[in-house]
TrEMBL record:
<dbReference type="InterPro" id="IPR010233">
    <property type="entry name" value="UbiG_MeTrfase"/>
</dbReference>
<keyword id="KW-0808">Transferase</keyword>
<dbReference type="GO" id="GO:0010420">
    <property type="term" value="F:polyprenyldihydroxybenzoate methyltransferase activity"/>
</dbReference>
<feature type="binding site">
    <location>
        <position position="79"/>
    </location>
    <ligand>
        <name>S-adenosyl-L-methionine</name>
    </ligand>
</feature>
<keyword id="KW-0949">S-adenosyl-L-methionine</keyword>
<comment type="similarity">
    <text>Belongs to the methyltransferase superfamily. UbiG/COQ3 family.</text>
</comment>
<feature type="binding site">
    <location>
        <position position="58"/>
    </location>
    <ligand>
        <name>S-adenosyl-L-methionine</name>
    </ligand>
</feature>
<keyword id="KW-0489">Methyltransferase</keyword>
<feature type="binding site">
    <location>
        <position position="38"/>
    </location>
    <ligand>
        <name>S-adenosyl-L-methionine</name>
    </ligand>
</feature>
<comment type="function">
    <text>O-methyltransferase that catalyzes the 2 O-methylation steps in the ubiquinone biosynthetic pathway.</text>
</comment>
<dbReference type="GO" id="GO:0061542">
    <property type="term" value="F:3-demethylubiquinol 3-O-methyltransferase activity"/>
</dbReference>
<dbReference type="InterPro" id="IPR029063">
    <property type="entry name" value="SAM-dependent_MTases_sf"/>
</dbReference>
<feature type="binding site">
    <location>
        <position position="123"/>
    </location>
    <ligand>
        <name>S-adenosyl-L-methionine</name>
    </ligand>
</feature>
<keyword id="KW-0831">Ubiquinone biosynthesis</keyword>
<dbReference type="Pfam" id="PF13489">
    <property type="entry name" value="Methyltransf_23"/>
</dbReference>
<protein>
    <recommendedName>
        <fullName>Ubiquinone biosynthesis O-methyltransferase</fullName>
        <ecNumber>2.1.1.222</ecNumber>
        <ecNumber>2.1.1.64</ecNumber>
    </recommendedName>
</protein>
<dbReference type="GO" id="GO:0032259">
    <property type="term" value="P:methylation"/>
</dbReference>
């Protein structure tokens, strides 16, 4: 039997704050702040989402999933944090969003339903699993030939440790302490190697930056801390 690609401590960390997923001033405030940037980046590279089949891997409380549903996408969201999924389902129901939420691993879904989605997103998730390469491989199996995949994560650099852990968790208190483990951060070269193994071609990579004085997030050059990238699956 394969060992599940999940860190129980990570699941517990997210479920402990599940009731605050939709509080823009709560522990997930940074995700609320960057969600419009993430959505615009996806639209920039995919055009309209109207009618597109989209899978959000590691959907958490559904922030991105709902944003894409509001753009007309047919969204499926998967996660292994059951309390977070319950929060996502409740919020979607209250706001009349038809989103298919499932508690299933990406690898298991890839075996059950390969090549079913036009777009696959996996944002702020890879650094929270024991085997991120397996997630990238599964995402490659889940997307249709010619489809787009979006990943975002943290680079394993001293600057990322200073900004994402010391700064965000301890000094600015933007995130709960223990949210990140620097040793689990992923370099763009590592991510690209896993992606190429999954027959994915890099189309674009950009940095995600936080300015503590303005308290604003922006996309731009420099991937030393957070980065967001888009790949295309071969074929079609």
């Amino acid at each position: 039997m394969k060992r599940p690609n999940v860190d129980s401590a990570e699941i517990a960390q997210f479920d402990a704050h599940a009731d605050a997923w939709w509080d823009p001033e709560g522990p997930f405030a940074p995700l609320h702040a960057i969600n419009p940037l993430r959505l615009e980046y996806i639209k920039q590279h995919c055009g309209t989402l109207q009618g597109k089949a989209v899978l959000d891997v590691g959907c958490g409380g559904g922030l991105l999933a709902e944003a894409m549903a509001e753009e007309g996408a047919k969204v499926t969201g998967i996660d292994l944090a059951e309390d977070s999924l319950a929060a996502a389902q409740q919020h979607a129901s209250e706001h009349n969003h038809q989103i298919n939420y499932q508690c299933i691993a990406a690898e298991a879904l890839a075996e059950e339903a390969p090549a079913q989605w036009d777009i696959v997103t996996c944002l702020e998730m890879l650094e929270h699993v024991p085997n991120p390469a397996a997630i990238v491989q599964a995402c490659g199996q889940l997307v249709k030939p010619g489809g787009k995949l979006f990943f975002s994560t943290l680079n394993r650099t001293p600057k990322a440790w200073m900004h994402a852990i010391v700064g965000a968790e301890y000094l600015l208190k933007l995130l709960p302490r223990g949210t990140h483990d620097h040793s689990a951060f992923i370099t763009p070269a590592e991510l690209d190697r896993w992606a190429r193994t999954a027959e994915l071609q890099l189309l674009d990579i950009t940095g995600l930056h936080y300015h503590p004085l303005t308290r604003q997030y922006t996309l731009g050059d420099g991937v030393e801390v957070n980065y967001l990238c888009v790949y295309k699956k071969a074929g079609a």
